[in-house]
Write a structure and sequence with these properties.
- The protein has 4 domains: 30 residues, no CATH class; 170 residues, Nucleotidyltransferase, domain 5 (2-Layer Sandwich), CATH 3.30.420.40; 59 residues, no CATH class; 64 residues, no CATH class.
- 28% of the residues lie in helices and 27% in strands.
- It contains 8 helices and 19 strands.
- Strands 4, 5, 6, 7, 11 and 12 form a 6-stranded mixed beta sheet that branches.
- Helix 6 crosses helix 7.
Length: 344
């Protein structure tokens, strides 16, 4: 039998096939009651995915540990770079060529451009920066999330059969800052849906951290206990407090006061460093320096060494080297022989 627009039929409880213009599409695999929960920690500087099959006898939470271009680690850089001639092509994570200077960092913060920025962060025109992007921020976030998710699926299938995983009912959880606005939450959900993570549930980042800690075997609580969680991330810092109301049969917590926080973190310091270098060498030299290995080496040194060793002494000196950069000396500013002497 044929019918314009296709014909769907099933016989004796057999799988349903779709007849469309003389072709037969394979039936969708039957769903089982087993579940696969995939949780995405979409961070400002790093992102990661954990997963669990909760219907198993002894369910365990596992994290994706292998990422393209990176050593084995539970997180991957939250960075994406588009082909200037084709916005459908991009590299992401550690695969981004950071020396090219066109990588988009802080993707997550683009979803909440109205968030108040403290005075210590670099000044700039956020809306102008967004207009320069190759795509809408939600689409950029979706591209990155999709890439992370698809890679995670490949890693999960190394542990369980792909056919079984395709039959499981997938559930998605995304963590968001406690201070995320409703607009930002909506943008996050839309990006996740575009990336294939649907339906998704949002959970506050400090709440997720608290739940994980409370279920650790070496951590005990009593009814009436109160605790504070500080989630210090790369771009946002959140504080939230809870009181324990119930332990059995299920843990029940009460949020004592609304979560608070703001724009702060490691990414802001890196942005301040870049701005300081630009002021040090001037616009013309900075434009060329930005594309060199010397700048990448200096930025890496600041991020991984200088920033971590700072202990608050304003007189302590730190040396930032720009190898083979051929910068003009500026002794008054501490720049001599491609080495900048910074003070705390």
């Amino acid at each position: 039998m044929t019918r314009r627009g296709g014909y769907r039929s099933s016989f004796g409880g057999q799988p349903k096939y779709t007849f469309q213009e003389g072709t037969i599409n394979k039936p969708e695999p039957p769903k089982v009651n087993d579940q696969l929960v995939i949780a995405l920690d979409f961070g400002t500087t790093f992102s990661g995915i954990s997963f669990c099959f909760p219907n198993q006898t002894d369910p365990k939470v596992a994290s994706v540990m292998d990422w393209p271009g990176d050593e084995s680690a539970p997180k991957i850089h939250s960075m994406i770079s588009y082909d200037p001639d084709d916005s459908s092509k991009f590299t992401w994570g550690a695969s981004v060529n950071r020396m090219a200077g066109d990588g988009i960092v802080g993707i997550k913060l683009l979803l909440d451009p109205g968030q108040e920025r403290p005075l210590y962060l670099p000044t700039g025109n956020i809306q102008r920066d967004i207009r320069k992007l190759p795509k809408d921020p939600v689409e950029i976030a979706a591209d990155y999330i999709r890439a992370v998710y698809q890679h995670a699926l490949t890693e999960i299938t190394k542990q369980v059969p792909r056919d079984y995983m395709s039959m499981c009912q997938q559930q998605f959880v995304l963590s968001v800052p406690a201070v995320w606005t409703d607009v930002a939450k909506d943008a996050t959900l839309r990006a996740a849906k575009m990336a294939g993570l649907f339906p998704a549930t949002l959970i506050k980042e400090p709440e997720a951290a608290a739940l994980y800690t409370l279920h650790s075997p070496d951590f005990t609580l009593s009814i009436g206990d109160v605790f504070v969680v500080c989630d210090a991330g790369g771009g946002t810092v959140d504080l939230i407090s809870y009181e324990v109301l119930q332990l059995e049969p299920r843990l029940k917590l009460k949020e004592l006061v609304p979560g608070t926080g703001g724009m702060a973190g490691s990414l802001g310091l890196n942005q301040r460093f870049v701005e300081a270098v630009k002021n040090l060498v001037g616009e013309d030299q900075y434009y060329e320096l930005r594309k060199t290995k010397g700048f990448w080496f200096a930025e890496k040194s600041f991020d991984r060494e200088i920033k971590k060793s700072y202990r608050g002494d304003p007189n302590e000196e730190y040396f930032v080297t720009f190898p083979m950069a051929s910068l003009e000396d500026d002794p008054a500013s501490g720049l001599v022989s491609n080495t900048w002497t910074m003070t705390g």
